[in-house]
Write a structure and sequence with these properties.
- By secondary structure, the protein is α/β, with parallel strands linked by helices.
- It folds into two domains: 10-179 and 365-385, Rossmann fold (3-Layer(aba) Sandwich); 183-362, Glycogen Phosphorylase B (Rossmann fold, 3-Layer(aba) Sandwich).
- It has 15 helices and 16 strands.
- The strands form four sheets. It has an eight-stranded mixed β-sheet with strand order 3-4-2-1-7-8-9-10, sandwiched between helices. A three-stranded parallel β-sheet has the order 11-12-13, with helices on both faces. Strands 14-15-16 form a three-stranded parallel β-sheet, sandwiched between helices.
- Helix 8 runs parallel beside helix 9, helix 8 crosses helix 13 (331-343) and helix 11 (292-299) crosses helix 14.
- The longest helix is centred in the last third of the chain and has 21 residues, at 365-385.
- The radius of gyration is 22 Å and the shape is globular.
- The two termini are 28 Å apart.
Length: 386
């Protein structure tokens, strides 16, 4: 197609509270995927906050980022007094605003005033779970945002079914599962294969768990479960619960069974997943809406043990198909599931092969980006024709 006949790129403003390089993983990674993957279809700009003394404008992987000064956080929300003015200004210049929720400050801004011109797509990553005391205060603002939204993107149907916010507007919700670049997990160099063999010989009954050391991940339950399991669990990730979990491991006397590895280089994480073939995700609240680490482990051929949360977690890896699902906060059931799969390598391999196939079918980065871009173009086209 010649440049003269190419469709103009949509001007898309992604709005959230933080972005790279200040924080990695989670929502910032999703925004990065969308900005990079839709570069041929969208001219993207990110609005986020910044700490004092850092630049107002930066460029990350070719995407411009406008950052508003935050004076600090209150109940996990940045205090950024100029953020509303940046959002109003930049939204007026955009074809579409992609609001990555939850961030109640943006809901309040939209409630006060929002330009008519841009389409509004809400990426509903999760509900407010950890700060429920503020929910009655911000609920009217959230409801107003959802009424104003042209479309709401969620990662699984279960999120719609379980949400008092989303069920009434199910008709304007689009299910677009998250995805990752599977090739970086599936392709193995000769050095990686050697390292995997070494790890298998060193730890023949290995369980891996990956995630930030925060309360909703349920690591206390996992540690308690390992007291009943003949095996070794390596917990990969850092976070505020590091000292608390180390003390719990010592209290239960399971230092020989549970290892807090901290953050590891990508190559070592990848080798551990391939060597183990078993990922345990013991999350205990609906703050765990999907579990990207499940997809990454599935790409490595891991069987999955997850918890029966009212989110997409047990849908990503399904009980009896790609692994086993147990009740949350139940160390006995979790220990039983881990022992079952450690004792039965054939069943673990069967689940792992099914998990890899499901990841290839459902959870590729290319699919996530393509379907999100289709939603963007559809809502902008519909707004123009109205």
């Amino acid at each position: 197609m010649s440049s003269a006949t190419q469709k103009p790129r949509l001007k898309v403003l992604h709005a959230f509270k933080v972005y790279l390089p200040d924080i990695e993983g989670g929502i910032p990674t999703v925004i990065r995927q969308l900005c990079a993957g839709l570069r041929d279809r969208c001219q993207s700009l990110v609005l986020a906050t910044r700490r004092g003394g850092t630049p107002v404008r930066i460029t990350i992987e070719g995407t411009k980022v406008q950052r508003s000064l935050s004076l600090g956080d209150v109940m996990s929300m940045p205090i950024a007094p100029i953020y509303p003015f940046w959002l109003w200004l930049l939204a007026r210049r955009a074809d579409l605003v992609a609001f990555h929720a939850p961030f109640p400050l943006i809901d309040a801004i939209i409630w006060l005033w929002f330009p008519r011109r841009p389409a509004l797509v809400v990426h509903w990553h999760s509900e407010i779970v950890g700060q429920k005391k503020v929910l009655p205060l911000v609920r009217p603002f959230i409801l107003h945002t959802l009424r104003r939204a042209d479309r709401v993107i969620v990662s699984s149907q279960k999120m719609i079914d379980a949400s008092d916010f989303l069920r009434p507007i199910a008709a304007k919700c689009s299910v677009v599962p998250f995805g990752v670049d599977l090739s970086v997990w599936t392709e193995l160099s000769a050095e990686e294969q050697t390292r995997i063999a070494e790890l298998r010989a060193q730890h023949p009954r290995l369980v891996v768990s990956v995630g930030r050391l925060v309360p909703y991940k349920g690591y206390e339950v996992l540690i308690a479960a390992m007291a009943q399991v003949d095996g070794v669990c390596m917990i990969i990730g850092g976070g505020p619960l590091q000292a608390t979990l180390a003390a719990e491991i010592a209290r239960l006397g399971v230092q020989d069974r549970v290892i807090l590895c901290g953050r590891l280089p990508f190559g070592e994480l990848k080798a551990l997943l391939h060597a183990s073939g078993l990922l345990a995700m013991a999350s205990v609240t609906a703050a765990e809406t999907f579990g990207i680490s499940q997809i990454e482990a599935m790409a490595c051929g891991c069987a999955i043990i997850n918890t029966d949360l009212p989110t997409g977690v047990p849908w990503v890896a399904r009980d009896g198909l790609e692994g086993l699902t147990v009740p949350p906060r139940d160390p006995v059931a979790l220990a039983g599931a881990m022992s079952t799969l450690l004792d039965d390598p054939a069943k673990r391999a069967q689940y792992g092969a099914a998990a890899r196939a499901r990841a290839q079918e459902m959870f590729t980065e290319a699919r996530f980006v393509q379907e999100s871009g289709d939603v963007y173009e559809d809502v902008v086209r519909s707004k123009i024709t109205r």
